[in-house]
Design brief:
By secondary structure, this protein is of the alpha+beta class. The protein has helices spanning 26-41, 123-135, and strands at 46-48, 58-61, 68-79, 82-86, 96-100, 103-109, 115-121, 146-147. The structure holds nickel (II) ion. Nickel (II) ion (NI) binds next to helix 2.
Length: 154
Amino acid sequence: MAKRNIVKIGDEILKKKARAVEVIDDRLLALLDDMRETLYANDGAGLAAPQVGVLKQCVVIDVGEGPIELINPVITKTEGSVVGPEGCLSIPGKWGKVERPQKVTVKALDRTGKQFTITGEDLLARALCHEIDHLHGILYTDKMIAFIEDEEEE
Ligand code: NI
């Protein structure tokens, strides 16, 4: 595995749509491994492939319950809505208030190519929405209510 550089806001690649994965080969598995290592090295909750400069529909999430890998993820159901703080490894040092569903269901492929469904609430729902947005060229700053000032952070 190898840590990859994270693309920062202002880079045009973050505004581009990622392509669906058609073949899960060694190169794609290496990408997923590298994304996981990069996520942990940067203490993040989620990372999407465009953030390491690769326009493929791959996401790695860990909200403290172990890594979740998603290939070609699609949100199939949402419920409720919560406004909460959100950060992004591509927007270092900033937090914003963003409205997200309280609960989401996502279908995706795992690294063996098998389809699965995951339902997440609260923090996991937020992470799923945030990372899937990255695959469509959307950053949280595109939909946030406002940045959170330093003194509000805790
Ligand atoms: Ni992000």
